């Protein structure tokens, strides 16, 4: 079967990226320059670029045009309960935490529903930013019943909520129910993450359970979409 001109353009761009002649984030040559170099029509170049944008090899900025899609330095496995620190350190970065606030407040009706709490129960609220080489990467808001973990207990721990719960309450998280939501812009969170209004966030909402299916704590983790991608394995049933 004869290869099409669109295929020719696509393969040329892919090889340019693999060979390092086009770098992450770099603008593409003009459509006309590519067409002349490969002896194809400019319409073929447009079609090839559109296909590579769909396949996420290229990205498109309406003001600047197409460019090589920047790679995500971090990959978070959705099928495992892996700490954010471990994900950062496995890529050769230094993991750090910037704490925003600690508090113990009465549980709202939503808190009580998610954590199966009685009336007048209190929750420990921990707000922090997870850093990679001092670069803000994830905004975390965690809520834990104070009967399981107090602010003082957490502050004397190694900064891992999972470890602090095991040490102070002798409870262990067995699994987490996770929801994923794309957030285009959230003023407060985007600001503390140094994310521009054009940069999307990926929100992971997690409720952590013990082996008896009792909720232990829940979290809101906002990841900068420019830095982190998610992966999982899906089995056919």
UniProtKB/TrEMBL annotation:
Q: Which UniProt keywords apply?
A: DNA-binding, Transcription, Transcription regulation
InterPro entries linked: Bact_HTH_transcr_reg, Chorismate_lyase_/UTRA_dom_sf, Tscrpt_reg_HTH_GntR, UTRA, WH-like_DNA-bd_sf, WH_DNA-bd_sf
User: Is Transcription tagged as a keyword?
Assistant: yes
Limits of the HTH gntR-type domain: 3-71
PANTHER family with a match to the protein in the record: GNTR-FAMILY TRANSCRIPTIONAL REGULATOR, MANNOSYL-D-GLYCERATE TRANSPORT/METABOLISM SYSTEM REPRESSOR MNGR-RELATED
Kindly indicate whether the keyword Transmembrane belongs to this entry: no
Q: Give the organism, scientific name.
A: Staphylococcus succinus
Q: What is this protein called?
A: GntR family transcriptional regulator
